[in-house]
What we know:
By secondary structure, the protein is an alpha+beta fold. It has a 6-stranded antiparallel β-sheet with strand order 15-14-13-18-17-16, sandwiched between helices. Strands 20, 21, 22, 23, 26 and 27 form a 6-stranded mixed β-sheet that branches. Helix 13 (about 380-420) packs parallel to helix 14 (about 470-485). The N and C termini lie far apart (about 130 Å). Residues about 45-70, about 605-610 and about 740-750 have low confidence and may be disordered.
Amino acid sequence: MAGETPLMVVDGGGVVVQWSHQAEEVWGRPAGEVVGRPAIDLAGPVPAPGGGDVERCSDGSLRDVSEGAAGRGLCVRPVLRDDGSAAWGVFLPPADGLVPGIESAVLKALSAHMAAALFVVDEELHVVSANAAAQALSGASTPQIRGRPLTDAWPLTSPRALEDMLCQAMGDGASAVDHVMRTDPKNDSQHTHSVSVLPLRDAPGAVVVAHDVTEQEKVRRGVQALYAVQERVGQTLDVVATCQELVRALIPGFADIAVVEVVEPVVRGEEPPLSPLGRNVPLRRAAFGNSGGDQQARAHPVGDVRALPFPTPYAQALADLKPRAIALGADTPWLAADPARAEAIHASGARFLLVAPLTLRGKVLGLLSLYRTQRSGGFDEKELALTVELATHTALSIDNARRYTREHTIAATLQRHLLPPAPPSQTAIETADLYVADDRGAGGWSNACALPGARTALVVGEVVGHGIHTAVTMGQLRTAMQSLAALDLEPDELLARVDDTMTRLARERRALPLGDPLRDEPLSATCLCALYDPFTHTCTIASAGHSPPVVAGAASGTRVVDMAAGAALGDGGGPPYAATTVTLGDGDVLALYTASLLSAARPEDGTSDAQPLQRLLAGTDRPLQDLCDDILYRLRTDALPGDAVLLLARTRPFPADRVVTWRLDDEPTAPAVARRHARHQLAGWGVDEDASYDTQEIVSELVTNALRYGAPPVQLRLINDRTLTCEVHDSGISAPRLRHARTVDEGGRGLFICAQLAHNWGIRYTDNGKTVWTEQAFPSQHP
């Protein structure tokens, strides 16, 4: 009873539509009783031919359970009815269990009803047959493509990949499933297919099944673009870098060409303009990307600044803040308004354009332009909505970068105003400085202060951090140090006083309201202070967590000063700051610097150089400014961790004819002798009589106080420098004080008189006593 005639035929609804004589013999039911009824009514054991039984298995198939049938099952396969509809036929298999022609029937059914393209190829990879979908994919009928190589009948962008898959599958008999391949279109958009290769078992050849997954691929591409933008864009707080991140996230997956243009003031950190954007507002081309290589045609170079032409979709998108998806062609009318873009579009092969404004809260930050070629296809509504979402995320990132740029521009501007002008050279010391600012606005500074007695204080410091508050703290510390230096403090004591100031500032910061973000930011700074005395040729240095200075001299060579670095300012105390004294010869160069400069001066090849300034300062016979410039040209300034600051000071001898020193006897006549010496010297310097008289009075009072309250020996020194300085030194340690004597008092007016005649006075303590000094401005130097 086996054969190609079905026992019965069941339609798609499970209803019996045909009942054969063989079925009547198997089930013992006439056609009139079965046709039109559900086939499920046949479930359960029924009589089988020869008196056996047939039952339904758990998988829904029927099996002969009679003892003579040996468990042979029924076969079900699709059949075509006379009216062309498909149904299911139930057959009795032959005794060996094989159904004749099943493979051919299944292949025919699949070929007729599968939506996917199905090619059958021989061992030479030539087309044997193709279903309707495959013929549509090839653009030709089966007779036209039969015998042709598959990759010729179906052009792909990577035909070699398909050929390799086929050879591999037919060689080892293993199927290759779901490989993504793209068509190679001529005038149509590119399509994407999921290709599977199934080798034939009983004949040489293979079946190639291709499902069109263009829409799924487009959705996947959009999701990937969204994820890439959210993942990458906004990682840096730089406007241009943010635009470049966007381009890299969209090329090549989402578009073939991408251009980002930003309103020029936004790049500088300024407030973006409100919409609609004026026609003359300039935009900077911040980023450009393409999938066509470096030779891709472009209308303008990156960095170019110009207004958008009108009327064009670009300008219109920034006027009404609406995105646009446009097809491009040779007859597109608005291209005439922008010849440069028109030429670039034609040269690149772009056929589709999507422009989306970069806006935030009604303010225009820039414009995103995406292009696709014919192969990539146009932008649909879903991609348009997705691009708007990408543009919104990018606009927020650009605005964050703009705010950061604005804050650090303010910080850098504030820092420049708080920094002193170029340090003036003194009579006994020549100075030059180098300052390379961190773009983020840091807290580095340097200063050279002239002190009484022709001495000079050299300071380099750096406040930890960036931003406006760091610049303000730098200004506070610099002012405090300059004020304290005028009190004639030694470097170690000066740093101790500044550390107290830093501690108070930190305490004030911790007292800010809980919601203030500045409250939890640490406050710390490093500083190096050096005090040079040209008469002793000594330089006293103290460090608060700062790098030691470098000394370079023609005779002594180049060396790093060996000294102890105390705790950084504001670090909560520690051992007292220690002072180190070094002797400098005439012409020696002292270099003070920040850690950022030292880092930028290290060799690029990564070789060890513990102190690169020693190498850079090898030739000290050049002008100091030339030396600073040479060091600048050798710096790696691409990634400074802070402000790179360098202060160079070259010593030189104080002119012998502008200083004079007398040692006075411990006698009552010493004040008169001192007056006489002063009068004679001042006349030789050309000091006028009024200033000379005032100086003689000062000398008399200071010498008298030294003899009366101090200890011998007493020494008088006059210095003719930027001011006229009078110094009286004795070995006593008792501190004189300014008193306001009563009318009837016979004494107590000495320092008061000196303070009235001089514009500045003070006391300086040394290891062997104290020095009381006064400064008088020459007549031409009075304010």
